[in-house]
Predict the structure.
Amino acid sequence: MVLVFAESPRGQIKKTALQAVTYGKKVADLLGTTCAALTVGTGAGAEELGRYGASRVLQVSDAKLDQFDSQAYAAAIADVVKQTGAKVLILSHSATGKSIAGRLAVLLNAGLVSGVNSLPTLNGTNLQVKKSVYSGKAIAEYDISSTYKILSLMGNAVKQEASGNPVVVEKVQADFKGRIRVKEVKTQEGRVPLPEAEIVVSAGRGMKDPGNWGIVEELAETLGATTACSRPVADSDWRPHHEHVGQTGIAIRPNLYIAIGISGAIQHLAGVNNSKVIVVINKDGEAPFFKAADYGVVGDLFEVVPRLNEALKKYKASNH
Amino acid sequence: MKLLVCISQTPDTTAKISFNADGTAFNPAGVQFIMNPYDEWYALVRACELREALGGTVVALNVGPASNETTIRKALAIGADEAVRIDANPQSAAFIAKQIAEYARNEQFDIIFFGKETIDYNGSEVGAMVAAYLDLPFVSYASKLDLNGTTATLERDIEGGVEVLEVDLPFAVSASKGMAAQRIPNMRGIMTARTKSLKEIPALPFEEAVNIVAFTMPPAKAGVKLIDPANMDELVRLLHEEAKVI
């Protein structure tokens, strides 16, 4: 059996968890077995994971797991893996997944490949799977030979696909202990978090002043996009630090990344070069970002961005 | 206060990455190697700050060959008190974690620091593995770490925000931007680093569960398609019809 740990922080099942279940179902098909999904904590709604391919949905329904502790989560998940006889465990390569993947590998004596971005292939009883390495500059193919195998899946690497029906949630017991006391969770309300966003509108020093961001936010609004920024902009406190994408900030993988007034330093590209489509708007036609772009507009962003916003509104009005 | 900082050596951020002809090994020719930035800028510097405030010892640990000693000396120049190199050519995060854990098991460290990930394999695996071997709490992607007696308050990056938490010593932590500010080693640090202890210990055998079969380069971009800045309708059409992203 393939077991997928489906993250549901504060009782909300994450989009990346639906992607992980979709991926888990495909891995199970490859292995000729079934896919089960596991949630922890007391949140409701886990039966919906059946729609994405889980034939069983398990829940360790313990209020002590409503707050995240990597030690407790890993122990509980490892216990369920052993109870169910699952041999392949799928996680999301998220803040939570990164905290527990290594621990699970040790607890289960499993081979781990973290941050995979495509389906594995079967090589006898081994799995072979690819991931991006060197901050997106190369791809490595791994062979996992251990009995237990763990894959953590990059956000947006596969699209969630509803293929089945909700299933009844089975409550399971698990052993765990934790020593972390969560005091507060501070998140931005009403915005898709950057690592999960399908469209990201990002701006840099070319904006000249933090007071000029209105045109960026309007464009993001029209596209239903999340806003981001480059490092110099975050370091100057023009924009909040959680918007900073790039090597030291957040690495993202949206379907569409629109870079406005960002030159495209290699440290910035390292965080965004896995985006499916990149649009660069910059007045300097020699900006290095154009080499990594799919579409480029060489022009004054203060004219181009409002014009693009109008064109999008016109397109939306005629198509929806 | 006894603090361990695990440091990796990685190709420089701007290095051109290439592999040998059959794609089975990294080609180090012409590549400059550096201390993994998150290990250096955040983990090591925060450990040194805590030692400066509270006293104690900062040990820098690297699992790698003798050629890594330049990087290890840099950690001593920045402020680590002593260093240990576990002699090996590591092939995986799992190997490195096992070596670190076996070294740290009897050393009674209060905090074991890691960078949030390395910039070569981007796995973010080693910290959680070491914490598992030593049965320690683990806090990943911490952007803030304050200590009050034997209790630490940390902030951890999560999707779209931060989580504030408390944990008692001992624990393991991986550091992200914000935990400390980069330090440039000064001349005195560089001079004293030469006389600080750098101990070499042998690696233990380890059976790999995961092996790299091949490296490949990502498909080349088709090249940028330039759009007339006066004609944004055309860009919208291409994003819809050609790229199919809106």
In short: The longest helix of chain A spans residues 301-319. Chain A touches chain B through 100 residues (CB under 8 Å). DSSP finds seven helices and 16 strands in chain A. The longest strand of chain A covers residues 126-133.
